[in-house]
Inverse folding.
């Protein structure tokens, strides 16, 4: 397969992926990191780590390309996945494709229609405790299917909170904790019961590391900004640790001529 990673607005062809391994989906992550490898920290006082890491300027060509890449990756996925902490930090988050206007948004909608996919990917939320707010838009938006991977205890909590009445599908991946074996079984069920053959994981890092430990994370798309984050200035700083030496190969890298400070990388795990 090609490992090209075009981020030029003039070249918007589909991003290609290998076929999924037997019994599970092809899973890829998507993160933005600072120049010194910081991807998140504990939020407080209205802080938005992603906006700060991205440089804060939504009109910057590199930032626009990063948003477009995110939507292109979602468009290729059967499901977009989030950890529970990401949902707490961003309670309105939904991994949508149809929220991008203009020619690219229309091209992505047509791409999904040609492949026989629903307009929006399914949304998968991972929570061992089951402590998520079922009032969040991700669980209540028409046309968006929500699946929660949790424990038996978490499923009981969600059922008590009327999760099934709200149409939220539950996958139990352990009794009180979700270990690598439980994750593997959950991902098999995502294939067999929900037809999810390709999944885009948008974080956070705890979830990405758990999937990597379970050998379920195949690729990681990393946008590297030119912002240097002072780790001493923030609490709970998390770094991009999944790409340890020898763990993954850089199979593609792209830059914009109009904004070379951003780097767009595609890593594949061995």
């Amino acid at each position: 397969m090609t490992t090209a990673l075009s981020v030029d607005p003039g070249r918007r062809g589909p991003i290609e992926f290998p076929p999924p391994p037997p019994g599970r989906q092809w899973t890829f992550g998507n993160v933005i990191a600072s120049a010194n490898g910081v991807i998140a920290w504990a939020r407080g006082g209205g802080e938005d780590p992603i906006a700060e890491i991205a440089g804060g300027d939504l009109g910057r060509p590199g930032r626009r390309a990063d948003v477009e890449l995110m939507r292109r990756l979602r468009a290729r996925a059967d499901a977009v996945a989030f950890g529970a902490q990401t949902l707490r930090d961003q309670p309105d988050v939904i991994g949508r494709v149809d929220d991008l206007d203009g020619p690219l948004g229309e091209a992505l909608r047509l791409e999904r229609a040609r492949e026989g996919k629903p307009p929006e990917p399914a949304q998968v939320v991972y929570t061992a405790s089951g402590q998520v707010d079922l009032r969040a838009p991700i669980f209540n938006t028409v046309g968006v299917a929500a699946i929660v991977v949790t424990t038996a205890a978490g499923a009981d909590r969600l059922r008590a909170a009327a999760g099934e009445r709200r149409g939220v599908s539950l996958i139990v991946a352990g009794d009180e904790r979700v270990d690598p074996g439980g994750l593997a079984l959950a991902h098999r069920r995502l294939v067999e019961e929900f037809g999810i053959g390709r999944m885009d994981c948008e974080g956070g890092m705890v979830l990405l590391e758990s999937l990597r430990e379970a050998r379920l994370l195949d690729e990681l798309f990393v946008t590297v900004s030119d912002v240097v984050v002072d780790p001493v200035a923030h609490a709970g700083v998390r770094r991009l640790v999944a790409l340890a030496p020898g763990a993954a190969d850089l199979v593609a890298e792209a830059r914009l001529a109009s904004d070379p400070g951003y780097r767009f990388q595609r890593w594949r795990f061995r």
About this structure: Helices lie at 49-53, 61-75, 84-89, 102-114, 152-160, 180-194, 205-213. Residues 83 and 138 are 12 Å apart (CA to CA). Residues 26-36+50-269 form a domain with the Dihydrofolate Reductase, subunit A fold (CATH 3.40.430.10). The radius of gyration is 18 Å.
